[in-house]
C-alpha cells in the first residue's frame, strides 16, 4: 500500500500522462468496437426519406423501419421462429452429447483420449462448405430440402466440437476431490456425476449453451444452401434477401432494423453474461 | 438424435469408430502418445466408450460421411448426354480425375482466382487482426477501471452475426454511405475491383480482431508480475520487455487464436457473399465457388472444390501444429491442475 502511494507521489506528471494515453487507448478500443454497431442502430431509427443522413442522432426518431420489418407480408416473424428452432435444437442436442463426452475427456483415463479429443476439436475447424456440398446432394435426393433437420444436422458439425471443447475445459477446472469425496461416501461414479458434477458445472454448461447458441444462431451458409422457400429461411438468410419497393432499391432501413432485432438478443446475453462468456471463449487458449 | 442408439460398452469398439473420424490426422499426436495409462482408473474404459461414442457417432455421420461422399462425388461428372454412346443417362458417369483436371485446366482461371483471393484474405486479415488484437489486449490489460465495460464492448462485434455485419458494412460502404462521407470521396466500394477486397478486409478485421484481443488478454493475465520485475531490474526497457517477455509468454495463447482465425478465414463465405455478392471475381473465395457450383447442381466440380479446400485447410493446420508447435488440446489443463498432476502430465507439458 505505502509502496504504491510512494511511486505515485514520486512521479505524478508522468503517471498522469501515462493514464491519459491509456484511457485514450481504451476509448479507441470501445469506439472501434461499437461505432459500426451504433451506426446500424441509428440508421434503423431514421425515416426512409432521411436514411442517407449522416448526423450522429436520428432526427426525428422513427420506428417506420421496424413496423415495415414486422409487416406480415415480409414473413420476418416466421424467419425468427425458424432461427430459434434451428439454433435451439442444435444447442440442446450438442450439449446433451457433449456433457457426457467432456466428462469422460476431463475425468477418465482411457487409451487414445488425446487423439480423440484432437479429432473432435479438429472437426470444428473443418470448412463447412466441404460438408454442405455432399449433404445438399443427399438431402435433395431424400427430400429434406426446406426442412429443419436439413439445417440442424449439418450444424452439429460445428456446434458439437465447440461444446465438447468448452465443457472439457470447465470440467477440468473442477477439483477431482469433489467426486472422490462423493464416491468415498458411497456414490457410484454415475451418481457422483449426476448429483455432484452436473449441479456444480451448471454455470459452465450454461455458458457453453450460450456460446453454442450464438454460433448456431449466426450460421448462414448451411441455412442459405438448404432452403429455397422463404417460409423456411432463418433470420440472417431472410434479411439478406429483403427486397425494397423496386428491384433496384436496397431497403437499407429495414435491413438495419432487422439486423438490430436479430442482434439485440445476443447483445443482451453478452452484456448479462460477459464474464462467463469471456471465460468460456478463452478457456481453451489460456492454459 | 443418435445418442439414443448407444452401442454396447466395449472399449475397443470405441477406438475403432473413433480413430478414422478424420483419418489423415491420426499421425499428428502420435509421437507423444507413448504414455501408458494402465492405472487404478483402468476399469473406466467401458464407461469412457459409452460416454464418448455418441459424440463420435454423430461426428462420423455429419463430418466423416459427407467428406467421403465429397471425395466420391468429385470423381463423377454431370448427368446428361454421354459423349461416347450418345445416350442420355440418368446416372452420373464416372469421370475419374477429370473434375480436378478441369479445375486446374479449363476452369483454372476461376479456381486460381478464388484460391488467391482466399489466401490473400487469410494472410491480410489474420495479420491485421493479430496486430490490432494484441494492441487491444495490451490496452485492456493495463486499464483497471472500466475493464468490464470494455470487455462487454469488445464482445459486441463477436456477437453480431457475420451475415448481419455484412449488411451493416454494405450500408456503411454504400456509394452515398457514411464511409464515403467521412472520407470525402466517391468510391464505389461494392463494385468489382481492389476496393471491394478492401471493404471485405475492413469488415472482417472489425469483427474478429476483438476476438484475438480477448484470447491474448487471457494469456496476458496469467503472466506473473515477477517476470516483468526481473526484466526491469535487468534493465530491459518497455519495448524489450514486450518483445522478450510478453510475446514469448503469450505465444501459446496467440498461436491457438491465430490458428483458429486462419481456419475461419480460409472458409470465409458470408461476408464477401453479402457485402459484395456472389460470382464477383474480386472477392470470390473457394467456399463461395464450391457453394455456387453446388447450388447450380454441378455436384462433381463442387465436390472437387470442396475437397481441395479441405486439403488446403488441413495442410495449413498441420503446418501450425508441426512447425509452430501449436498445442490445441491442452491436456495440461489449468495451472492449478498441472501443478497437482505435475508428475503425471510432464510428457504432455513439454509440447505446450
UniProtKB/TrEMBL annotation, chain A:
For the ABC transmembrane type-1 domain, which residue ranges apply?
80-273
| Keywords, alphabetical | Cell membrane, Membrane, Transmembrane, Transmembrane helix, Transport
- Chief place of localization: membrane
Q: Which InterPro entries match?
A: BP-dep_ABC_trans_perm, MetI-like, MetI-like_sf
Its membrane topology, per UniProt? Multi-pass membrane protein
Instruction: Tell me where on the tree of life, at the top rank, the source sits.
Output: Bacteria
Q: Where in the cell is it found?
A: Cell membrane
| UniProt KW Transmembrane keyword | yes
Q: Which Gene3D superfamilies match?
A: MetI-like (1.10.3720.10)
- Pfam families documented for this protein: BPD_transp_1
Q: Where, by residue number, does the polypeptide cross the bilayer? A: 21-41, 79-103, 115-136, 148-167, 196-217, 252-273
PANTHER family, per this entry? INNER MEMBRANE ABC TRANSPORTER PERMEASE PROTEIN YCJP (PTHR32243:SF18), MALTOSE TRANSPORT SYSTEM PERMEASE-RELATED (PTHR32243)
Q: State the protein's name.
A: Carbohydrate ABC transporter permease
Q: What is the source species?
A: Streptomyces composti
Q: What is the lineage of its organism?
A: Bacteria, Bacillati, Actinomycetota, Actinomycetes, Kitasatosporales
